[in-house]
Design a protein that fits this description.
The chain is of the alpha+beta class and about 140 residues long. Among the domains are: about 55 residues, no CATH class; about 35 residues, no CATH class. Helix content is about 25%, strand content about 25%. It is built from three helices and six strands; from the N terminus they run ααβββαβββ. Strands 1-2-3 form a three-stranded antiparallel sheet, with no helix packed on it. It has a three-stranded antiparallel sheet with strand order 4-5-6, with no helix packed on it.
Length: about 140
């Protein structure tokens, strides 16, 4: 009986999914975000100014690609460095500003700003959170 119920649910679900179009999904969730694979383990999503120039780029670890599931949560430093150097060459960045490398913290996160004359890199880290369900373990548990 359980199998028959599961089969009916799957059939109804697949029929519902089949009836959705790209326009339906876009109307409900908005336009898709352009994400670029800039290296083996890193995705990049740009934001544009009103003149069409890139004004911001967000880099984040890949979770999946066409045929790979990635388990990492961090950006590999050497890979990120190479991507940043390719996208914003060192000689185009300008001089370092006074607050170069300053870190601020708050709200369970830290952000470090590398401010140049022509570009700013901001790295954000989140501190791990610990959930507490109200039950305190007794000694020895």
């Amino acid at each position: 009986m359980k199998r028959a119920g599961a089969l009916i649910f799957v059939l109804l679900s697949s029929e519902y999914v089949y009836m959705q179009t790209a326009a339906d999904i876009q109307a409900k969730y908005g336009k898709p975000v352009a994400a670029y694979s800039v290296s083996e383990h890193i995705w990049m999503t740009p934001e544009y100014a009103s003149d069409g120039q890139v004004c911001s780029m967000r880099f984040y670890p890949k979770r999946i690609s066409a045929n790979t599931n990635y388990g990492g949560h961090d950006l590999p430093f050497t890979e990120l460095r190479d991507v940043l150097n390719a996208l914003v060459r060192v000689e185009t960045r300008g001089v370092k500003k006074e607050s170069f490398g300053a870190t601020a913290t708050g709200g369970g996160s830290a952000w470090t700003v590398y401010d140049y004359e022509n570009v700013t890199f901001t790295f954000v880290s989140f501190f791990p959170t610990m959930s507490f369900d109200g039950v305190i373990l007794k000694k020895g548990e």
